[in-house]
Design brief:
The chain is an alpha/beta fold. It folds into three domains: 111 residues, Double Stranded RNA Binding Domain, CATH 3.30.160; 44 residues, no CATH class; 334 residues, tm_1862 like domain (pyruvate-formate lyase- activating enzyme, Alpha-Beta Horseshoe). It is 43% helix and 21% strand. It is built from 17 helices and 18 strands. The strands form four sheets. The chain has a nine-stranded mixed β-sheet, with helices on both faces. A five-stranded mixed β-sheet has the order 2-1-3-4-5, with helices on both faces. Helix 12 links the parallel strand 12 and strand 13. The longest helix is centred in the last third of the chain and has 27 residues. The protein is globular. It starts with a strand and ends in a 9-residue tail after the last helix. The C terminus is likely disordered.
């Protein structure tokens, strides 16, 4: 899809709306200042050329003399809208960025028949938008009306966001600037799933096998260095989260080594949650679970993604649905009383009926947490080359919408409640990922990382540290090298970057009280 912006530089806003309708297509934007004669001449030449050639799919936005005109050329047809832009807007919804976005959205909805469930909401953290309005004193009814009228969000998603915000609120109120979470990255897997877009390495490769022991040693060293930075800040550790990849790809001895490093270097006396993403059942055994129990891990994930054996085989998961169930039951026998299970809606070859059966089976197992993800589309040449292919993508998105709605309805009717929610770019149907939990079993780390109001110190390849000062309204990120090989080779630089932790908290430390 091509976008032509004339007389303004609102590239980001136009592209975000276009991606709602064409998530798998490359968006190419060209900008022209409308008030320069040379560019006007170029535009005339371009328009003359386009008149002779077949009309290409394009969104043209032109802002001139206080008038915004948006023209959509799609599938050989052209439609336009014009609106006046106020020089002094009375509300955010009268600003040029919003007006243009609304016009593009309206034209694309009419032309494609697509009406995204989240409407014009394009950000990763939609619940934050709801929190902000509720914190301003607006009632849930007022907030619901605003998102329905201005953003075209469906009633189902509005209710989901409000319910999520309601359950998040008590936990978010506990967050203070002197608390932090610790994230530990294990970016290795037993094999790579076909849909995966995470930075993770297949452990079957010789290079990955060889570097893993070295990686674990460096990781423990980084944890020690982070603990030294923390000591002078007064920060208190509240949650620890092992993520991946698949952390249980590690041997029992390696798991023990990292857990011992955490215990040795950090004060765990105020810890409220300790999570390990056990992940795939083909990496979990009784010995590894004993290690986790010995180190007081309070929450684990056993992630089937689906309980359909044919779909598991199709996506490259080298285990069966029965192995998932056996692994879950083994964890229960060993005393794990807070287990999460991840599901993905929209997996290749899965059907609405098949996904619904998976949801029902997971509900029967009664895990404390169920996280329902929407498949994120990989860019490929198979979508977007013709209008017919776009229609097929639309049908697939509609099916995924049915899957997500079924999961939401069944889980909430069965006693689970939504406690955190986020969106990713390029998901089928622009749908969300939602964590559901039984009362009192919220995954605190998940809430903290989505709300971005607590400091998260992160160790390992691909890990991102987030430094938060709510008092000062500041948020900074420190990035570790993305790949394990870079992380090991550039380890001195990894440690050097962490020096910023001390500086940040020195700069944002509360001023001492005056005694006069």
């Amino acid at each position: 899809m091509n976008i032509k912006n004339i007389g303004h530089s609102m590239k980001y806003e136009a592209e975000c709306i276009a991606m709602l309708f064409f998530p798998d297509e490359k968006i190419v934007t060209t900008e022209y200042p409308a008030d320069e004669e040379e560019h006007e001449e170029l535009l005339v030449q371009q328009e003359q050329k386009e008149q002779k050639a077949p009309v290409e799919d394009c969104i043209e936005t032109r802002l001139q003399n206080g008038l915004m005109k948006v023209t959509l050329s799609l599938d050989g047809k052209q439609t336009s809208l014009c609106r006046t832009i106020l020089s002094e807007p009375h509300s955010p919804y009268e600003k040029a960025e919003f007006v243009m976005s609304d016009m593009i959205y309206t034209l694309l909805s009419q032309a494609t028949g697509i009406h995204p469930a989240w409407g014009m909401v394009t950000g990763v953290r939609p619940v934050k938008l709801f929190h902000r309005r509720l914190d301003e004193g607006k009632t849930p009814q007022m907030v619901a009306r605003e998102f329905e009228q201005h953003f075209y969000v469906t009633q189902e998603k509005i209710e989901l966001a409000l319910e999520t915000a309601r359950h998040e609120a008590p936990i978010l109120r506990e967050v203070t600037d002197d608390t932090f979470s610790l994230y530990i990255s294990i970016p290795f897997c037993p094999s790579r799933c076909s849909y995966c877009s995470f930075v993770s390495h297949d452990i079957t490769s010789k290079r990955a096998k060889d570097i893993l022991p070295v990686y674990v040693d460096r990781l423990c060293e980084e944890l020690e260095q982070i603990s030294q930075k923390v000591k002078g800040t007064g920060l208190r550790l509240t949650t620890v989260y092992f993520g991946g990849g698949t952390p249980t790809i590690l041997s029992p001895e390696q798991l023990d080594q990292i857990c011992c490093a955490v215990e040795q270097h950090f004060d765990l006396s105020q810890l409220k949650e300790y999570t390990v993403e056990a992940g795939r059942p083909d990496t979990i055994d009784e010995e590894k679970l004993r290690v986790l129990r010995r180190h007081n891990i309070s929450r684990i994930s056993i992630n089937p993604q689906t309980l359909d054996d044919e779909v598991l085989q199709k996506i490259g998961r080298r285990h069966t649905a029965q192995q998932v169930i056996d692994c879950f039951e083994m964890a229960r026998r060993m005393g794990f009383d807070n287990i999460n299970m991840d599901l993905i809606a929209g997996l290749p070859s899965d059907s609405v009926e098949g996904f619904c059966k998976t949801v029902d089976k997971v509900i029967a197992l009664q895990p404390e947490n169920v996280t329902v993800h929407t498949l994120s589309i990989k860019r490929s040449a198979s979508y977007g080359e013709s209008w017919e292919e776009r229609r097929k993508a639309l049908e697939q998105a509609q099916q995924v919408g049915q899957m997500v709605s079924y999961a939401q309805k069944q889980l909430m009717q069965s006693g689970w409640m939504p406690y955190y929610l986020y969106k990713q770019r390029n998901t089928l149907g622009n749908l969300e990922n939602t964590g559901y939990c039984k009362p009192g079993c919220e995954g605190r780390y998940n809430i903290y990382i989505m709300d971005e109001t607590q400091t998260i110190l992160a160790a390992g390849a691909g890990a991102v540290t987030k430094l938060c000062s709510n008092r000062e309204g500041k948020l900074e990120r420190i990035f570790n090298y993305k790949y394990p090989f870079e992380y090991v080779e550039q380890f001195d630089e990894v440690l050097k970057r962490k020096d910023r932790v001390v500086d940040f908290f020195e700069e944002n430390r509360p001023l001492p009280l005056r005694k006069d």
